[in-house]
Input
Amino acid sequence: MPLTLDTNTSLWAARAAPRAPLPALAEALECDVAIVGGGFTGMSTAYHLARRHPEKRIVLLEAKKVANGGSGRNGGLMLNWVNGVEPGDPGRAAGIWRATKQGIDLVEGIIREHALDVRWRRDGTLSVHTRAKGAEEAAREVEALRAEGLPLQWLDGAALPSHLRMVGAVGAVFDPTSGHLDGVSYLEALLPVLLGLGVQVYEESPVLRVVEGATCTLTTRAGSVKAKALVLATNVYTPRLGYFKDRIFPVFSHVVATQRRDAATWAARGWAPGVAGFDDDLDRIAYGCMTTEGEVVFGGGHNAAYGYHFGGGVSFKGTADFASVHKRLLQYLPEAADIPVAHRWTGPVGLSWNRICAMGVRGAEKNVYYALGYSGHGVTLSNLAGKVIADMYDHTDDAWRGLPFYQGEMAWIPPEPARWIGYHVMTRLTGKSPRKRGVKH
Ligand SMILES: Cc1cc2nc3c(=O)[nH]c(=O)nc-3n(C[C@H](O)[C@H](O)[C@H](O)COP(=O)(O)OP(=O)(O)OC[C@H]3O[C@@H](n4cnc5c(N)ncnc54)[C@H](O)[C@@H]3O)c2cc1C
Output
């Protein structure tokens, strides 16, 4: 199944109602805050700022249409935790978990408050352990975190839904607060809310140049914006604006989605009802979710599910090996071989060297806000980022201080050709992509 760019459409985008793009910026504007990027980070930032400051002029510039990036092409899992952080003291680990849960709570709160028509579910996910030693540690951690008041559960192998037993799972952590989100349906539904709050959104308006200062100047093809504050909400694309070039590592992640089937059909093939999704402990994480309409979306699992382009390119080139991704899915759900793949797509994930994302403010005028480098938990964390950035903007950010991502700068990543060689040697020899050790918190 070779990929051509015109077939690179996610399930979420394929089933979205068609919408003409909003007009591109074609004038010179002045505003209080300019947000670059219409994914979860940019849209959540616009939402929180506009709710708090109805008097401020907020402009959001999106290169294509909202949800064009990872927010519209992810695997749909909405998980707690911060990838790259190794659980240490249980009290602190519980604090991190509670902080990230706010990201999911915010999504749910916005959907409910504005009665948005969004495809999502929040009935829990499983983090599967395939190695006995890791499973023992995870079971102990769950006990310690339960003592801190977290609603996690440890499930031994025999208690797992059957499809997860197939991969030799020894057990899993069940988190009842996580779930699945169709990012396109969420952002498309959020867009009119933002417009109603007075946010000026321009699509098909890539920012070509940024000049920082007490007033930042952004240039697009046919317009410009002068802003007192700037928000870089461009995640993996941020280096193209000249920021974090040596901190972000774009790796393509390939995803497949099956045809739709009803719950009974899936139950007969091993996907028990009542679980939104799972991820596992493999070095090349495999993950899957069950959509509200009955498609299994699956990604990762081995090297063929990822790719790195020399120079950190974010436009996909070459072919993606979707057949191997599907083969891997069938190791989880062998009885689903009769349910064909209906969608396949790829997109770049912006990894940091130790996998910890960063949210902060920088620049001589301390008016350039950023949030990026999410890996594994980006759906939750990029939706949380809007609140974190709004709190930084309002100087009400004390609650975030000390969290692993707060004011993060991300570790330095070696330049090319070391980066490309390192990636390919490491993945071929060990099956892992290069990374700095996680940080104990
Ligand atoms: C294939 C894939 C699978 C994934 N699966 C999962 C998953 O299951 N669970 C999970 O938690 N995370 C997952 N992620 C990661 C997650 O989707 C991202 O971390 C998250 O969506 C990042 O949101 P964002 O708003 O920061 O960035 P994006 O959604 O990428 O948004 C950035 C936006 O900026 C725009 N832009 C870029 N440059 C410019 C410019 N110069 N001017 C104007 N606009 C610009 C882009 O068009 C884009 O719309 C996955 C990502 C991919 C690619």
In short: The first strand starts at residue 28 and ends at 36.
